[in-house]
Amino acid sequence: MTDLTSDLAQLLREGQAAITAGDMMTARDRFRRATELAPGSAEAWVGLSAAVPMLMEKKQYLEQALAIAPEHVDARSSLEYVQKLMADGMQLAPSRRREEQVASGNSSPLLSSASAAPQGEAALHCYRHPDRETGLLCTNCGRPICSACARPAAVGQLCPECIKERRPVNYKVSAKDIILGFVVALIASAIVSALLSIIPIGGWIGWILLLMVGPGIAELIVRIVDWVTHAKRGRAMQITVGAAIVLATLPVIALGVIFDAAPITLLLYMILAVVTTSARLR
Fold first, then answer.
1. Which pTM value belongs to this model?
2. How many domains does the chain have?
3. CATH code of the domain containing 57
4. Residue 229 lies in a domain
5. Which DSSP string corresponds to 136-161?
6. What gap in Å lies between CA 207 and CA 201, rounded to an integer?
7. Domain ends where: 107, 131, 165?
8. What is the 3-state secondary structure (H, E, C) of the chain?
9. Could you read off the pLDDT of 252-270 as tens digits, one per residue?
């Protein structure tokens, strides 16, 4: 399951990077592979909808995403936008604004004239960079954004604030989550370190045994942290849990050095635990 999740995340990242680079063929390939690997992933279907030019295809993929995750905000707003374009008689997604592309070098096909400011009105300026004139609007909140601030969405583009709001809930980490995660990981790792310092595990057989069970112990720590933080993820949680493991293990290693007890086993556990928890909390 972990490998499948990791492969899916990699395909989604590569697909989004391809969209940003304007390589729609690669984007379609990555997102199609993602939907085949995990048909129940709403993010994969939303990504695929962004990589196809036909509005009918976009509509089908967005409807599939909503069938999986009815509360998916990005999929719902994008579907409404696609339906509006189709109601206007369009069959293809709007073309990009050439002047924005030339000015910024941004080749994203999602910077489209459909989300541009109406012609004939006063010039708009990016709300984050008032000195930059722009013709782009965030398709969610309607604020003017320059090409540097625009973030590709399934249809159109979003401003940085709207992107943050649409992040999955488990990536919105609060100070409380960090404190709880740190305390729980610290206590759990301290207990494990104490047990490993008492249990006589030595020689290459002991190291092989630790290599086998170490990731499982780290997985248990992640499960406990998930329980108290409601499965929060992201760099903040990676750093928090990793730091807790190191702080809980280093004193025991230091005591082992002082009392002439080989701390190699504990050092190996610490490395395995940090690497495993970091991978699981991405």
1. 0.48
2. 3
3. 1.25.40.10
4. yes
5. EE-TTT--EE-TTT-EE-SSSEE-HH
6. 8
7. 165
8. CHHHHHHHHHHHHHHHHHHHHCCHHHHHHHHHHHHHHCCCCHHHHHHHHHHCCEHHHHHHHHHHHHHHCCCCHHHHHHHHHHHHHHHCCCCECCCECHHHHHHHCCCCCCCEHHHECCCCCCCEECCCCCCCEECEECCCCCCEECCCCCEECCCCEECHHHHHHCCCHHHCCCHHHHHHHHHHHHHHHHHHHHHHHHCCCCHHHHHHHHHHHHHHHHHHHHHHHHHHHCCCCCHHHHHHHHHHHHHHHHHHHHHHHHCCCCCHHHHHHHHHHHHHHHHHCC
9. 888 777 766 556 778 888 8
Range of the domain at 45: 2-87
Same domain, 66 and 147: no
Residue at token pair 């604004």: 97
- In angstroms, rounded to a whole number, what is the distance separating the alpha carbons of residues 175 and 259? 38
**Which of 87, 119, 139 delimits the end of a domain?**
87
* Domain co-membership, 113 together with 66: no
Q: What is the pLDDT of residue 104?
A: 45
